[in-house]
Amino acid sequence: MYNLYMTKDLSTLFYPKSIAIVGASTNVGKVGGIVLQNIRQSGYKGNIYPVNPNYENIDTLKCYAKLELLPEAPDLLIVAVPISTTFTVLQEAGTKGIKNAVVYAAGFKEIGKDGEQLEDQLKQICVQFGINMIGPNCLGFVNNLCPLNATFAKTNGQSGNIRFISQSGAIASSMFDWCDAHNLGFAEFVTLGNKAVLNENDVLQFFLDHPINTLTNEQQKGLSHVSPIGLYLESITNGVEFMRLTREIGKKNPIFIIKPGKTAAAAKAMQSHTGAIAGADFVLEKALKQSGVIRCNALSEFFNLARAFAWEDEPNEPNIAVISNAGGPAVISADAISDAGLSLAQFDDDKKKQLLEILPRAASIMNPVDVLGDALADRVGKATEIVLQTDQVDTLLVILTPQVMTQIGKTASLIGMLSAKYKKPIFCSFIGGGMVIEGEKILNQYKIPSFRFPEEAIMAIGTMWRWRQFQKEQQEKGNAETEIYEKTNEINKIIQLAHGQLSLDNQQATQVFEMMGINIPKSQIIKTLAEGIVFTEKNQWPVVLKLSAPGLLHKTEYGGVVMNITNEQEIVLAWEKINKNIQKL
């Protein structure tokens, strides 16, 4: 029996050596035609088998009438046919021994009870044959590390360090276009649709087991040190497993999510979109915080964090500096910095003097630094370099407005070069429209996050810093838990050594108390009176002398305890007394 909740090997799904496309077509106006074209244009290197009884060949590829006629069982099956044919295709795939499939067709759980029954039938076929299925009602997936575009949407195939999982194909296609426009590459983008078989936890487990390590030096240029993961989920399949995976991934990499369904209207819309049932949102909110998953409240926030985490390292401390060619945006940014839980960095006298030497008298050398509206690129660049050399500054935000003398493109290029030189996180906000587009494109080439408004940039910086703080706290907590685990093991060893005894002896009990952090009086097991006298010389009076023997629980009843011993003569008498009492045992 195929267990839907066991860890699945998805290597051949995301890195297939051969692919069959049922419904392949020469018509790029059809899904089967677009998908075939996308797979070939993405640079996929494996065998491609179009399957369609209406063709003998599609371009240079031999076309097969049925799956059973293929020369091998392909690693991946693309099902690009209507819902009515999907069941037969999956049955044939199972018989052929195919273990991975993508089903695009809609009309299942998302339409109601009738569709839910159809989806159950689809799931049963997958269970019967052990097929890892993405979908139905999905866009497919892109793996730029393979490379492979197994969707019917366009993307430029640029590799990067960010990974995505989405239940929405439309959000995926929008993200593809946005990434292309902003020079943001990604590793994988997996759309899940209704999650009939494979769900977010399966893909997260794959991400955990397969860290990104195949990017070239050129591809890594300008990227952050982490591999962020962005999620759009309308439902979470197994909350406990989701928390386990996100906590484990979150030790090294940030995860941010859009999870709609806070309102009744959104919950109803989700059910008709992917058949998702909304749970109690306050429970989800708490679970996400415990796991360190960042919840986005808007698509704009989701897109902004994608670029921020992919391109810049998170700040270690909350101290931010602002350079602006306009006073108004600088003042607004100061408020936003406070609201985001960040701090305006303080410049020392030396840095203020350096700024004073390169800025006009009317400019502000305090933070935020106002270089004035007539600033050319050179002035902005010099101020930027001075601030980046300031130890008290952890992050820099450069704000530019398109004034008469503003050199948008040249300024962006200077900032890009300084970013590569100083390696401190730099964020930009070029406020405006058509006049600032040139600068934004240049910043994108340098992989410097640019935002239309400074508040958006500051929100991203604040989120990144809080994630860094959470990561530090979890690391400290993990170290403490490791210490507790090690001490628990030692305590268990002591208890195991005492197996068969009625109780721990004094020495064993003392060791246990010390490991638990419980303060008790100093003690020592002695076998001779001389050892006892040496102990009293090293420690303060009074002392207690008591008998220690395995299984002896009530020492006082047998005269095995003498208290309040205040000098050497008394310890000699106590020793003699206990030794006499031993004879009576």
How far apart lie the N and C ends? 65 Å
- At the first level of CATH, the class of the largest domain is Alpha Beta
Global Rg: 34 Å
Number of domains: 3
Q: Which bin fits the share of residues in helices?
A: 40-55%
Q: Which structural class should the secondary elements be placed in?
A: alpha/beta
Pfam families: ATP-grasp_5 (PF13549), CoA_binding_2 (PF13380), Ligase_CoA_2 (PF19045), Succ_CoA_lig (PF13607)
GO molecular function: acetate-CoA ligase (ADP-forming) activity; ATP binding
Domain CoA-binding: 13-108
Protein name: CoA-binding domain-containing protein
Write the layout of secondary structure elements.
Layout: H1 11-14, E1 18-22, H2 31-41, E2 47-51, E3 57-58, E4 61-62, E5 76-79, H3 83-96, E6 100-103, H4 113-129, E7 132-134, E8 140-143, E9 148-151, E10 163-166, H5 169-182, E11 188-191, H6 200-209, H7 217-220, E12 229-232, H8 239-249, E13 255-258, H9 264-274, H10 281-291, E14 294-295, H11 299-311, E15 319-324, H12 327-339, E16 343-344, H13 349-358, E17 369-370, H14 377-388, E18 395-400, H15 408-422, E19 426-430, H16 437-445, E20 450-451, H17 454-497, H18 506-515, H19 529-538, E21 543-546, E22 561-565, H20 568-584
Parallel strand pairs: 1-2, 1-5, 5-6, 6-7, 10-11, 10-12, 12-13, 13-14, 15-16, 15-17, 15-18, 18-19, 19-20
Antiparallel strand pairs: 3-4, 8-9, 8-11, 21-22
Helix pairs in contact: 3-4, 6-8, 8-10, 11-17, 12-17, 13-14, 14-15, 15-16, 17-18, 19-20
